[in-house]
Amino acid sequence: MNANVYQHFRQEEHAFIDSVGDWLEQVESQYAPYLTNFLDPRQAYILETLVRETSELKFSFYGGYERAERCRCLIYPDYYEPQTDDFELVMIEIKYPQKFTDLSHGKILGTLMSAGIKRDYFGDIISNGERWQIFLAKDSASYIVNQVTKIGRVTVHLEERPYTDIIIPKDSWLEEVTTASSLRLDVMISTVYNISRQRSKQLVEAGKVKVNWSVNERPDYLLDLLDVVSVRGFGRIQIQGIEGKTKKEKIRLRLGVLRK
């Protein structure tokens, strides 16, 4: 990858940029499509930027349903016409005794991660308040189905379902427009959830905040376009647009917000 590309992204994103460069090179040399694992929105933004700026290749994202947050990307030459089946997704429903217990996004995610399943092997976890479904990469689905038999103390059964049986997710992003003095992590949390800067700093330093699904304990961490911030007990924030500054030098932001 051209060295000039790195200056537009964070140091910790350079390894992912190198991977994207390898994928593009593979598609160009083999003249055949390449399918990624699941990408978070920030990774998808980086990939899209690099493809547009450094190649003539095309790409499509799909995560199992129209507004999926985590998607697989198919990178392909201009002759190729992608189909839904090319994304090799499987939809799994979690069967559990609904009358006697409740599941949560955090419990399901924690179970999958503790079972040694990498985050890029599965996509969104969705619920309508009772039923829960997960989108998996087809090549790892059977392993995950066999591996996960309990979530917490609850016995569960993971069952593949057709896409016609997809539920309508209960939670959805609310779009909010606001201004902030900076893109610091603690400032953003304070601004969105209307808590003190000191309180937001404490949440970050206590390990209760994730940026793009990784714990981040740096209050001064600078957020960027399409980063997703998860704040335990509060909800999630996505930077959907950075739209210049006000006369008072505040940053205009378009956010997606999930509030608990």
From TrEMBL:
Classification via SUPFAM superfamilies: Alpha-L RNA-binding motif (SSF55174)
Domain RNA-binding S4: residue ranges: 183-252
A Pfam entry, by short name: S4
Keywords assigned: RNA-binding
Name of the protein described by the UniProt record: RNA-binding protein
Organism whose genome encodes this protein: Enterococcus viikkiensis
